[in-house]
Amino acid sequence: MFRRLETAGRVETVTVSVGGKPVTLPRGETAAAALVAAGEAVGRTTPVTGAPRGPYCMMGVCFDCLVMIDGAPNRQACMIEIREGMRIDRQDGARRLGG
Amino acid sequence: MTDIRDRQADIIVVGGGLVGSAIAYGLTRHAPRVMLLDEGDRAFRATRGNFGLVWVQSKGDGAPHYTHWTRNSQERWTDFAAELKARTGVDTHHENDGGLTLCLSEAEFLDRRALMERHRRDAGNRGFEYKMLRLPELRELVPEAGDSVYGASFTPYDGCANPLFTLRAVHEGFDQLGGIYRPDHAVVAIEHKDGIFRLETRHGTYEAPRVVIAAGNMTPGLARQVGLEIPLNPQRGEILVTERIAPFMRLPTQNMRQTVEGSIIMGDSKEDVGFDTATDTGVISDIAARAVTAFPILRDVPVVRAWAALRVLSPDGLPIYAESQTCPGAFATICHSGVTLAAAHANELGGWLMGADRPEAIAKLGPERFHVS
User: Fold this and answer.
1) Could you give the angle at which helices B163-176 and B18-27 cross, rounded to 10 degrees?
2) Which domain holds residue A49?
3) Measured between alpha carbons, how far is B193 from B205 in angstroms, rounded to an integer?
4) pLDDT digits (tens, 9 = 90+) for B208-224
5) pTM of this structure
6) What's the gap between Cα B273 and its chain centre?
7) What is the least distance, in Å, from the CA of A96 to any CA of chain B?
8) In total, how many domains does chain A have?
């Protein structure tokens, strides 16, 4: 669905896991970029109706890209830069406390 | 050209918040032509900032008539919510499973028990059920209560509703019942002549033989023009809302509840700052700290919004229902429990406002109580 524009020269890369699948991207990209690069249009389902949601505004406004990052729920994927070994997982419904 | 009829009504309610709207909604059963004049988005709008409790257990210490009035409304709320849902399709999210007031020390717990006992004594034949729960019993209801919580009072009467959906439902219901709603019509002056009230707005003048001023914090200035002195002190309250989380709070407390959608709402600050609706970081952190003390599992839950609004408070904290002696047909009311009292306002005031005797239930809630004799 998404294809990266060609960039000049070699870039340093980072590998993260999206739903357990390794994805390699240039350093400095966001977790939301990793999600779409992995072909995942859906990062979560909503707490109220269970409707699917995925990265949309890519600038921290719409909160549609919430995912689990390294086990922490409700992270705004578009506002978080990827790190080597980061785990990005889909979040279904509302977060649970004390689980 | 607007028809002159568009500017006339049998009764005009000034104020489209939950108090004015509920009164106007109820009036449609008593008068064919009810008009509701509302301000615009710049108004103080306490309804929009409301916490959303339908609450009994802290109301009317030393003023049993107020407890009774509150319970009249609470007892009507379930039917009121069902009526609004059937008429408009809007769900007010009303819940009536009881409510808690948490106590953080034995001293608070004993004070609370004494208050509940006074309520029981004052309730007379009506009865007043309550339970004082120490932490182990409280945890049977809300297992997440923190170790710093000593206990809580519980009454089955308390509950909550979404104030925004309630307001929308009442407005839609009013419209469906033939009410005439005029937004952006702040009333700037009221003239009384030959038995007719003329209400001036930036969109022209409106006329009716009866007028009800239910304009929240703007009430005193308008009421004075129809011969009513309504003492009022705005009181700021700040509210925080967390992101949505899976349900864990089975019951609301006096200053925290979980919405149907999963957000935790916390608040209940009481600040004397005049007409200032700014938020204050010190107050916000106190509210958050108290919430984490009550429920430590909230420690890492992000707050996504905070706001402040102004309660509409009389000097004794009780509502005021006033009828003008010098301008017959004019009424004014203020109250800070617009959600709790909405069902009573919609059902019990219409006859009085159209000329019948004042309901006995509000006989002691007139402004005369503030007059020095």
Assistant:
1) 30
2) 13-92
3) 14
4) 999 999 999 999 999 99
5) 0.91
6) 20
7) 5
8) 1
